[in-house]
Specification:
The chain is α+β, with helices and mostly antiparallel strands. It has helices at 2-14, 42-48, 73-79, 84-92, 103-111, 125-133, 143-151, 155-178, 185-198, 260-278, 288-303, 397-404, and strands at residues 18-23, 29-31, 34-35, 56-59, 64-68, 96-99, 116-118, 139-140, 202-203, 208-211, 232-237, 239-241, 244-245, 248-253, 336-337, 340-341, 349-352, 355-358, 371-374, 377-382, 385-388. It has 12 helices and 21 strands. Helix 10 packs antiparallel against helix 11. The N and C termini lie far apart (49 Å). The structure holds manganese (II) ion. Manganese (II) ion binds at residues 247, 323, 351, 353, 376.
Length: 405
């Protein structure tokens, strides 16, 4: 079983006598009797494959125990079936299963003989109980080891990420074809809601559907304004398939044709993005894409008279060029190795997402005001260099205008 294989791989790094504790999330109340849709904790999901809320896994070289919700006929009528304690050993291949309520009494027994316990504290109700049990035990960070494992994707994980990339690409394409002046941002946003669900996928994060000046608000999520003829539309949206995320941004003209000013800025961002992607390969330092993208954007803005020769690029490009991508959209894994920037390795997935955001300013030609452009793709590091998982989606100016015609 895949999950047990991961447990074994993790334990092999931790040495003899190591015991791992990993907890999933609790259901979160939204309002009244309504809960948010449940999403398991990524670490727990990765190591157990179990997707019910309120569970704790404890494993060592010798033993695998799970604490989970008990069967409850009344609750199951309302909320659906639970695996329960009796079925857990066969389904989850654990040595024993206990009700989650027994955590406080059973966990101390399981910890007793461990040399070192690996556990990451995170604020939730289960955490208090676990912390109580660990009060006198030597505890080490689990993430330090586990997150390095999660950072390198295996073939199954890459296949899921390709699937979420493909669905997201298709949906961005639909949005480009259907967007037009006078629609509201949420109407274009609903294309993503509908098409993601059509594949039984979820949003991996709250989408950004930002017309005109809203594109200059980096985390704009209101998505409730009308789309104006002549403005750009920036969409940052990606789905999650069985826990694995895609993260794509495209920016295109609402009326199907870039203005000259939009075209100039767009081409700079695109050149920066393509050059940054081209540099990604095993053993390349991970700060290289940002350096390359920043240089191209800086020179481009200087050429257009938007940025002074000694001006601060951060006025127009104030975020990084990428982040790890996986079960979490901003995925786990270190960015530094000791005090040095680390290097790319085969199986890592990173986003590449340069942008330019120009707010109103007396010092800038008004034709450039309120232009916010970001182009983001998902890049897998391969033996030979890289593979863009989101390659299929139009981003050249001609391609986009052609698709929208
Ligand atoms: Mn991103």
């Amino acid at each position: 079983m895949k999950n047990q294989h991961r447990q074994q791989k993790l334990l092999n790094q931790l040495g003899a006598g190591a015991l791992v504790i990993v907890a999933t999330n609790l259901e979160q109340l939204r309002n009244g009797d309504v809960h948010y849709p449940f999403r398991p904790h990524s670490d727990f999901w990765y190591l157990t494959g179990f997707t019910e809320p309120e569970a704790v896994a404890v494993f060592s070289q010798e033993d695998y125990t799970i604490f989970l919700r008990e069967k409850d006929q009344k609750r199951e009528i309302w909320d659906g079936e639970r695996l329960g304690v009796d079925a857990a050993p066969e389904i989850l291949k654990v040595n024993q299963a206990y009700p989650i309520g027994a955590l406080k009494t059973q966990l101390p027994q399981l910890i007793k003989n461990a040399t070192t316990v690996y556990y990451d504290f995170k604020p939730c109700a289960l955490d208090d109980t676990i912390m109580e049990c660990l009060a006198t035990t030597k505890t080490q960070s689990l993430g330090k080891y586990l997150h390095e494992m999660r950072l390198i994707k295996d073939d199954d994980e890459i296949a899921l990420m390709q699937k979420s990339a493909d669905i997201s690409v298709e949906t961005h394409q639909m949005a480009m074809q259907q967007a037009k002046p006078d629609l509201f941002e949420y109407e274009v946003g609903s294309i993503f809601d509908g098409n993601f669900r059509r594949y039984n996928a979820e949003h991996a994060y709250t989408p950004i559907v930002a017309g005109g000046k809203n594109g200059c608000v980096l985390h704009y999520i209101k998505n409730n304004q009308v789309l104006n003829d002549g403005d750009l539309l920036l969409i940052d949206a990606g789905c999650e398939v069985q826990g694995y995320a895609a993260d794509i941004t495209r920016t295109f003209p609402i009326n199907g044709t870039f203005s000259n000013a939009q075209r100039q800025i767009y081409q700079i961002v695109l050149d920066a993005q393509l050059a940054a992607i081209a540099a990604i390969k095993p053993n390349e330092v991970i700060t290289t894409p940002h350096k390359i993208a920043s240089q191209i954007i800086q020179q481009g803005l200087i050429n257009l008279g938007i940025l002074a020769k000694n001006g601060d690029l951060k006025q127009f490009y104030m975020h990084g060029t990428g982040h790890w991508l996986g079960m979490d959209v901003h995925d786990v894994g270190r960015y530094q190795q000791g005090n040095q920037d680390r290097k790319y390795e085969v199986g890592m997935v990173t986003t590449v997402e340069p942008g330019i955001y120009i707010r109103k300013s007396d010092k800038i030609n008004p034709k450039y005001w309120d232009i916010g452009i970001r182009i983001e793709d998902d890049v897998l590091i391969t033996k030979g260099g890289n593979r863009v998982l989101t390659q299929g989606l139009a981003k050249e100016i001609d391609e986009i205008e052609g698709l929208m015609r």
